[in-house]
Write the structure tokens for this entry.
Amino acid sequence: MRELIKYSLFDYLRSHKYFPPVLIFFILIIVFYTYTPNPVIDSYAVTALFLYIVSSWLCLSFLSVDPPVQSQVMILHIGSLNRYYMAKLFCLILISFILAICAFVYPIIFSMFNETVTFTIGFVSLLNHVSLALLGIAVASLFSRVIMKSAINSIGGVALIITISLASLAIYDSLPSPFKNIVWMIPPAVSTQKPLFNWDGNLSDLSLFPFIWIIIYSILLLFLFLKLVKKFR
Amino acid sequence: MVKYMATLFELKNISKEFGNKKVLHNISLTIDQNEIITFLGGNGSGKSTLLKIIAGIELPSSGKVNYYDKEIKIGYVPERFPKLIRFTPVEYLNSIGRISGLSQAFLKKAVPDLLYRFQLEELKNEWIMNLSKGNIQKVGIIQAILPKPELLILDEPFSGLDSHAQKELLTIIKELKDKGTTILITNHEANIFEMVETAYGIRNGLISPIINGKKEPIKLLEVKRLDESHVLKWNEVLHMEKKKNRLLLYVQLKNSDKVLYRILELQGSISRVETVEEFHLKFGP
């Protein structure tokens, strides 16, 4: 699988398809930190949402980089459909992790904050970036060209779900009480926002459940993706 | 020469539909190890779909493919090898080899050897996407044979190849067969018939044997002014293809006189009587 990961990363780099999402991500980060100083936790919470959107874009482009026949040939060589797509998903997680590190390190290097970043705040913020990147990949994988043959359905589907997930707090507030639980179905992209905005930096005051829920939700979606890929081949 | 006779896989009632269009109808076949099998049929007859189902790339709408050895290594040459590959032949083939689990020592010897055999040495450092159609096809063939597969699936492998590469591919097919590989091939090249032990015709998603393992001679009759509804009732006709205003009938030699007589009786006109090999040599698909 390591060889396929290497091959896929090289292929993606040479395709230059990474350029638009990565460029937009860096522009968003730079523009966001234009005015200084910034609050640490709140700023990281926002950049993690940027990464959520960009990682879903990366996922759509990464999973469409191999022509279908090339994917078929590769699956035969690696001997398993699951191994092929797991290698692809691993590449995406790796790319998103690098972007998460960049989003984390940039404001520290250029002194964009009004306070120092403690180890706890840094760890939780990085965890938030990584878990939201994973969620973005998981959501987009279900709308990738591997499953949706039409580009409009693929891009439109992801855009719609991402918009709904970003608006889920407002949706929750506007729903009558008996229907509020429907929000659990929506990707929990903003579930960490409220706790982070109200957090004082002390780990014992922060519920880790929203982070764990994002990871569980993402793993369930990725599992569903691997099941659907077998059905749609 | 190694000769295996064990069954490699079995197709059980395979059907495939794309929307409302039924491409394959209830196909059942048993393929033994170390055989060369060819599938004949016109465009859109379902040959490529059948090969993809055998390779496991595509799922049948109904039916099953049973492999007796689950860990079988399959080499697959698609009908059109993708052009958009951002690697040089050397990079690509080495990557494919490593992905297949081949050792670096093996690849160091095998990749240059295969590039030499297919006259790709001078192009080994060019990007595949910049190569000609024929040279891309050669890379497609090399990637399939590099891991020494137990089952090699070749979908129209000769199309676009120059005569040297065609010869080389035939030699490699012979070599692989001698080492016990089973080869499934769709093509119209006459040379392959010398090696083929079994041939199947596919028409409208239905499969019928043309040459069986005993190499019983088959005649191909080209007929005009004959309604196909008559032919469908004749058990002696192994396979029928409709080409414009003529019908191609595959008939065992021992039954050919009987069929000829029936055609004349119905005032059909026989424009050609040849062996299957002769016909495909002259007219291709």
User: Anything to note?
Assistant: Residues 81 and 265 of chain B are 48 Å apart (CA to CA). The two ends of chain B are 32 Å apart (CA to CA). Residues 163-178 of chain B form the longest helix (16 residues).
